[in-house]
Amino acid sequence: MGGGEIIPILVLLVILAVVVVGFLGLIYLIIRAVLSRPPPAPSTLPPDVANQNQQRRDREQVKLLAIFHFLFAGLAFAGIGFLCVHYAIMHTVFSNPDMWKSQPQTMPPKAFLDAFVWFYLFMGVILLIGLALNVLSGLFLLRKRNRLFSLIIGGLNCLQIPFGTALGVFTILVLSRESVRQLYVGEVEST
């Protein structure tokens, strides 16, 4: 490796380090904000009315989470479509031998595409699994069942920056509240 090749690599490593530190800092700030929340102000409403209001808010928030899980599954479906279009374009470019006649060949373009197919398959499987898991989580949220499954999917969604991270954090925050736990227990007992 020459000196000209090492500089871009170092720049990329510095950028990657800044992104990782920023992401970890964001997670730290979210956790710190959640842990240092002030206690809620005492309600002036009768306990029954305050409890009913909280349950109504919890139901609305769980329903919104379900909708956002379905939307995130739709994004995964769009990602699968993008992967198919990208493969079609790459296949067209790399399978045309007339395009590559004037280029010195170290590796045949068709062999490069054949090696790249594994990337398309891997990403397609990841997107398909994410789609299925988010649809299941959305259905479970609507029915107020399998809270732990939705919490796990929320945690996995946190790995998909930026939309998955936001959805995952809000899923974990909402489903971790004691009033939502009681809502899940109440729905199971009422059926």
Summarize the structure.
This protein has 191 residues and is mainly α.
How are the elements arranged and paired?
Blueprint: H1 3-35, H2 47-95, H3 109-143, H4 147-157, H5 163-176, H6 178-190
Written account of the structure:
It is built from 6 helices and no strands. It is mainly alpha-helical. Helix 2 packs antiparallel against helix 3 and helix 3 (109-143) packs antiparallel against helix 4. It is elongated, with a radius of gyration of 24 Å. The N and C termini lie far apart (68 Å). The model has no long low-confidence stretch (mean pLDDT 86).
Helix % is over 70%
Mean pLDDT: 86
Determine the oligomeric state from the structure: single chain
Runs with pLDDT <50, length 5+? Answer: none
Give the total of beta strands.
0
CA radius of gyration: 24 Å
Instruction: Enumerate how many helices there are, as a single number.
Output: 6
Salient structural properties:
191 residues, mainly alpha, 0% strand, elongated
